[in-house]
Each structure stands twice: as structure tokens, then as C-alpha cells.
């Protein structure tokens, strides 16, 4: 039973723990899913924002570059048209071309400068003081590109370091033709790429940004940051280049070959130009918020997890304590039920025992009210007895009876064990009752009531009296025995002294009684003894006492005699009474007796008087029996 209870508790605890674990796991998963969704959504938002920023930024930068190129191209167009006009009549002079390339009314632009190269590829003049005259540029792409039969318009060349200026340059060129279609030469504009780089640098509103302008042939024109390192770098192996080759604009994520940073890029090719521009923003810049969010979420998650673990442990602990307490309570209830059952059984047993006792058993509280009583009360006092429980002893049995036992009740309530006897009238019959009161103490030693047991000892008293009587009667003859003789002789002596009279004591012994026994048998001897006693009683007055001392010895007490003669006359009468044969089994038999007589003196006690009578008997026997002698004081016996 205990084992199954324990296993039930264990399984209940394990179930609770499992459910708690499942619940917490579900919550954790839900929390993780929510956090994942939030992070993903933040990531997407931030990524989209970054993309939008780079796209907008690349459009703005592209517009700027296009406008710069347009400015340079417009200067080129102006120069080619002007030189072409000069060439309508004759070969234009270097001075006149220089006047076109570097007009006196316009300050030379440091961002780009122009040069004129003749149809053979020889430098003629420039807008600056660079000594290009006589230098061959015939191998330069920006020259070679215009040698074909078709008009190419604006040619944009790949970047390279200027041969003379040593500056990072890229070139725009247009050819100059005579109206008749003959090539006069080309005008080339050298643009300092650092001009773009400067603009880019100023536009970088945060360090993680990068702006790159490339030539679609695969070289970097300008890039910030790291303009110098990256200028004219070949990028044909980069993502940027691959994307540019596929699409005029777009986005991609890539690790930069220049500075090694992971970025998200937006790019676009510039309208009708072999140029493309990309703006990148480092991933760490736009994922910062996400990382912070992630850190915050991780912290919140850790706190929630800690709270869950703590509360889970607390819940488990509380559950276990609750279970233990419930189990304890169950066991306590069980014990209590078992105790109650024991108590009920005990009470029932006690009630049965108490009811089966032939005695009045009750419990009375300190206010003398009956708390418990057995059924014997109804047996003794009858079915009419009113309900006792709750009533006082006085109410139940009246003032007279209560007052007769009040001293003992007080003693019991005072903590004493009391035992006493009373004779009371029950249903008009005198009954002898024995009361026993046993006080009941509480834990503090205070008397809270007492147990009573009242036994009807009337019968016992009767038996006692009879027994008492039996000890004073001779069983064979029915005459008083030695005990009674002794008491009654003492009483007689007392009375005699009071009345100034004397007590006569006759001590008798059957003559030759042994021979009766021996010849006729013991039963006949008994018959003789009985008839002898009866004959003695008939021979004396009713007030006189005839007693059998032992064997064949008898004593007669004569009360109220005035002189010894009275005793002697009684003795004589007795001796004479023996003259009639005894009627016993067998032939009738003459039985004689010897008598010793003593008369009391004032100082005599029973023993003394008996001794004197016995002494006189002795004399009678010696004298021949069948007679009597009076004890004479001082006589030799
Ligand atoms: N049948 C019978 N015999 C008894 C009883 N008590 C005593 N005796 C006998 O009585 C006899 C008494 O004898 P004694 O008084 O000593 O002698 P005795 O024969 O009477 O002789 P004397 O007294 O000298 O005459 C004994 O033999 C006893 O055994 C009794 O209750 N019944």
C-alpha cells in the first residue's frame, strides 16, 4: 500500500515535470521563432534600406559623373567644331588650335585639359603648357579609335597614369574632320580621376561606404576610399564586373578585393557611356542594428530563460512539497481513521465489558454530572430510570442518598481513591452496596472527574455471615463450638458481673466413649454424640448454652446463678438424664457422663473458668466417672 502510494507520487511528480518541460520547451521554441522572425524581418528591412540607400546614392553619383563627362564632352565638341572650321581652308596652325583649346577669356580648368593630336598621331598643342608637340600618340586607344571610316563620336578611354603629367587620368576624345571627310586629327580631353575621387570622398557620409567608378573595359577610374591604390586596377575578375556585363544596373553582396570588406552594392552603367558606378555599404554598418537587436534579444531570451528555469525549479519544488504535504496529510488521515476505528472498537469493547459487569459502572465529571454509565444501572434501577448522562448525582438519586455519600464524592474529586460500603434501599429492599471511586487526572495533574464502581455485596454479606456462623457451630451436633462458647462465656461473665450473679460452667465428658467407637463403629459414635448433645439441651434452660468443645467433651454455661448448688443440681439432672439408653444402630446403649462444675468468681475470664471446670471433671473421672464434682478453690487436682 505504502509502496504503491509512493510510486503514484513519483509518477505524478514525473508527469508534472514532463508537462512543465514540454510547456517550457514550447515556450522557448515559440520565443525563438518570434525572435527569429523579428531578426529576419529586421534584417530584410535593414537590407532593403541599405539597398535603397546604395541605389539612390549610386544614381546620384552616376548623375554627377555623367554631368561632369557632359561638361568635358561639350568642351570637346566645341573644340572639334572650331578646329574643323579652321581646317576648311588650310591646315590649322598650332597657335590657332591652342587658342581654341585654351581660350584667353576662360581660365584653364585644372580638372581636365585638352590636347590636339594630328592625323598622324603627333601631339600638336594642348590647353596647358604640357610639351606634347612632336610626341607620338599614334598608339593610344583614344587616337586609334578614330581612325576607322565611321564617326565614333565621343570615345571614352580606359584610365592610366599620364605619360607626361604622371597624374591619374582617363581620356575622352573626339575626332576632327574636314567637311570633305578628311581626318584632321583628334581632340582629347584628359580628366584627372582624382577630381571624381575627391567628390566621392566628400560624399562618403559614413566610413563603411565605398564609391567606385569603372570603365566597362575592366579598370577602376576612381574609388573611395583607397583611391590611389585602386586607380586603374583591373577588375575583370570581380562580382561588380560580372554584374555590369550582364545587367545595366542591379545589386549584389560581395567582399571587396580592395579593402576586404563585405558590402552590399548597387551599381548602374552611365547612360551611353562605357562607365559604371557602384556604391557599396559595409554589411557591418547596416547589420549593426541587427546585431544590437540580436544582442538585446539574446539578453532578453537569457533573462526569460533564467526566469523560466527559476520558476520551473520553484514550481517543481513547490509541487514536490505540496505532494509530500498531501501524502503526509493522507497518511495522517489514514492514521487518524485507523485511530478512530481503534477508538471505536476500544469504546465498543469497553462498553461491552462495562455492560457485562454485574456492577454499576460510571464516569462522573468534576461537576458531578454523569458522562458515562453502563447498562447495569437499568438492570438495578429499572427501565424507568431517566436518562442519566448530563445529570448530576444529586438530581439522579435525591438529596438523602447524595448527602450520605457526599464526603466520599468530595474526597474522590480531591484526588483520593475512595472505597466504602453503604446499606441503601433499592425498590424497598435493603441492599448492601460497596462503592469504589477512582479519581481521573488530566495531563496537568488536575482532577477532571472520577470513575465509580458500585457492587451489590448483599449476597456476599449474607454468605459471609453464614460462613461466620459456620465457624461458630459444631458441624456434627449443630451446637455452638469452642469459638462461640468462648465469646458467649465472656459475655455471660460480663453480664453476671454487672448483675452481681455468677456463671456456672459444667465441663462434661462421655465415659468410655472410645469403646463405643471401637465396638459399634465411628458412625454409631457420631450418633451418640448427637443424641448426647440433644439430651443436654433438653436438660437445661433455654437461656443456658450447650456447646461441644471437641471429641466427646461438652460444656454447659449456666447464666444468672446465685450459688454453686444451682449448678450442681443441673449436673445431677444431666447425669440422671443419661439413665435412658441411647437409640443408636444396633442394640440400645447406656451412656454415662462425668461432669466437672465450676462457678465463676469476679476475676474469672472464660479460660480460667473452663480450666477450673476441667479440673473438677478430672476429679470426677478419677472418682469413677458417671457423676459430678464441684471445683473447690485450692483443691489439689
Ligand atoms: N465417633 C466419634 N468419635 C470421636 C469424635 N471425636 C473424638 N472421638 C473419639 O472419642 C474418644 C474419646 O476418648 P477419651 O475421652 O479420650 O476416652 P474415653 O474412652 O472416653 O475414656 P474416659 O474419658 O476416661 O471415659 C476417642 O477415641 C476419639 O477418637 C467424633 O466426632 N466422633
UniProtKB/TrEMBL annotation:
Q: Spell out the InterPro entries in the cross-references.
A: Biofilm_reg_signaling (IPR052155), GGDEF_dom (IPR000160), His-kinase-like_sensor (IPR054327), Nucleotide_cyclase (IPR029787), PAS (IPR000014), PAS-assoc_C (IPR000700), PAS-like_dom_sf (IPR035965), PAS_4 (IPR013656)
Recite the UniProt keywords alphabetically.
Answer: Coiled coil, Membrane, Transmembrane, Transmembrane helix
> Which residues are in the PAC domain?
416-469
Is the keyword Transmembrane helix assigned to this protein?
yes
A UniProt-annotated Pfam family: PAS_4
Q: Which CDD domains match?
A: GGDEF, PDC1_DGC_like, PDC2_DGC_like
Transmembrane residue ranges: 20-37
Superkingdom assignment:
Bacteria
Q: Which residues form a coiled coil?
A: 322-349
Say yes or no: keyword Cytoplasm present.
no
PROSITE patterns from the UniProt entry: GGDEF (PS50887), PAC (PS50113)
**Where in the numbering of this chain does the GGDEF domain appear?**
501-633
NCBIfam families recorded: GGDEF, sensory_box
Q: Which PANTHER family match?
A: BIOFILM ARCHITECTURE MAINTENANCE PROTEIN MBAA, DIGUANYLATE CYCLASE DGCP
Protein name from the UniProt record: PAS domain S-box-containing protein/diguanylate cyclase (GGDEF) domain-containing protein
Organism encoding this protein: Noviherbaspirillum suwonense
